[in-house]
Amino acid sequence: MKVILKTEGLCKTFKLSAKQQKLQNTKKKTITAVDNLNFEAYEGEIYGLLGPNGAGKTTTLRILATLIKADNGDALVDGSSVKNEPDTVRSKIGFLTSELKLEDFFTPNYLFDFFAKIHHIDPEVSKKRKEELFKKFGIDEFAEVKVANLSTGMKQKTSLVISIVHDPNIIIFDEPTNGLDVLTAKVVTDFLTELKAQGKTIIISTHIFSLVEKLCDRAGVIINGKMVVCDTLKNLTAEKPLEDVFFDLYAESAGVKV
Amino acid sequence: MKNIITIMMKEFTRFFTDKRMVIMTIMPAVLIYVVYSFMGSTLGSAFAPDEDHKPWAYAVNVPDTVSQMISDSGVSILSINDDEIAETKDRINAREVDLLMVFPENFGELIQTQLDGLADGSSHTRAAPNVEIYFNSMEPNSHQTYFVVTAILDVYKTSLAPMFDINRGIEDADLASSEDFMATMIATMMPMLLMIFLYSGCMGLALESITGEKERGTLATLLVSPLKRSELAAGKILSLVVLSFLSGSITAVATILSLPNLMGTDGDVLDVAIYSITDYILLACVILSVLMLMVAMLSIISAFAKTVKEAGQAATPLMIVVMLVGVSGMFGGGAQTDPLYYLIPLYGSVQSMSGIFALDYSPLNIAIACASTLAYAGLGGYVLTKMFNSEKVMFSK
């Protein structure tokens, strides 16, 4: 199998303000969010980053999407370095996270066209793709409604569609079903399966075990910024359910009995 | 370049299809026109004498000759006694009486003594007779009567002892051309007004376009697209320059149209046809370059700020600097001639505007101002690009 995404000793620390130091009862001036993280994702698989809140999942994905820079280490996305070729990396990936918002003032139709232009998509191709994706997600009926007036689910669907406007081969989704009702969540998970069937590589971060079990071919468990295990779902759940595996790993790594 | 145009088109669509933003841009111009016109008519009527008013001057010991001269000019004279002076002063204060003249007793004899003194050279040994005139400067009719009476007394004084005349028989002694007069009027006010209008226009737009997008998380969506940060910075800056130019121009036109009303000149003073096409082209270059600099500065402030409110607070001190630099154009007796002054950011542009408006400028100095201002703006664009690259600036909460 071809490695399409590879991280090499990724490290990321954040400064702690005096207020944060007080809240966390620590004198440390920095906090390590990602600590020498190494993992690989293969072409055509769904890879899940599993971990509790604050484990470093989102930070890792933000480094992969070139939104933030790693203090140390690098990641290669389809052969392009996030450190040295951020613009190329961004053209190769589709990135979706809840912190990326669409302008309330514009309609899904306008925003799709706008981002298609930014990605230099041929207008004919863009038009066809828009029709397909809007129909698939039921956005077609709301194509001319301003984002501000869309429901939360429809906003999330529009964000998803716009994140893959350029039909990328690598799709990185941070907590893809967070805040969605079960129906919308199913539409999203079904679509991820469909993308996988098309040969796309998908990286998702989540703390929902069932989502990993349902979707992922392989998963890595991150605790306190460190990768504590990375294996196929089959191997990970050979002896016990993923949830139990995770709690054992957490107790072992964090020294806390759950 | 294609991406820059795409970003600019998005900014234009955002602006022109949002009725609120368009109204907010046009509203200052409308308000300026209405307020200036209203102020002009109100102030004009408050300080103009009443045309139907018949002026009255109360007088003590007024000589017949003087009384006749003043009466001939349309001001009626009412002679009063010494003991009525205090009461008359009170009535002037109460705006019931226009004016009071108090001549010395035996004014005629005193004048004759003074004239004799002039003849034998002894006039300097004694003080000239003094005429007291009381009026109320806050009452337009009283003020007008004062001007008439003092003018007549001046004529009377000169007629008693004619030493020399000034401009006898010459009607057009003021050799300044009407163009010079208009240019000076415009050059005094417009640089300051333009700087304020341009900055105000930029401020609202830049804050909304950069801090607003950052605050709402929509800038981050652009940052994960394959756009180069420099393209994003250039697209934002250029679109803001165009929109601010439009906003500033609308406000400037409203000001030019309303100034005659404010100054009560019925459109005679501000005839902008005195400027040539070259003047307008140079002015446009100066305005566009200074707008680039203003937008770059405001964009940096906007990118630093976490909220629109914070950006607004941070942009206010810069507004004061821009106003003070704008005011500097009102003083100094014309534009600076030393090219070094034109290298100073903002100040060089104000001096260029003053020179162009006063029709007295050096093209080299204007070129220096435009080139240096564009260089500073380019530096600002570079800083903004760096800021778009900085996670600390873009994503710190």
Shape of chain A: globular
- In what order do the strands lie side by side in the largest sheet of chain B? 2-1-3-4
The percent range for helix content of chain B is 55-70%
Largest interface (CB < 8 Å): A-B, 26 and 22 residues
Fold and architecture overview:
The complex is a heterodimer of chains A (258) and B (397). Chain A is of the alpha/beta class and 258 residues long. Helix content of chain A is 38%, strand content 26%. Chain A contains 10 helices and 10 strands. Chain A has helices spanning 18-23, 57-64, 86-92, 108-118, 123-137, 152-163, 182-197, 209-215, 233-236, 242-254; strands spanning 3-15, 30-42, 46-50, 72-77, 80-81, 93-96, 170-174, 201-206, 218-223, 226-232. Chain A has a 6-stranded mixed sheet, with helices on both faces. In chain A, strands 2-1-4-5 form a 4-stranded antiparallel sheet, covered by helices on one side. In chain A, a hairpin with a 2-residue loop joins strand 4 and strand 5. In chain A, helix 4 packs across helix 5 and helix 5 runs antiparallel to helix 6 (152-163). The longest helix of chain A has 16 residues, at 182-197. In chain A, 42% of the residues are buried. Chain B has 397 residues and is mainly α. A 4-stranded mixed sheet of chain B has the order 2-1-3-4, sandwiched between helices. The mean pLDDT of chain B is 84. The interface between A and B is medium-sized, with 26 and 22 residues.
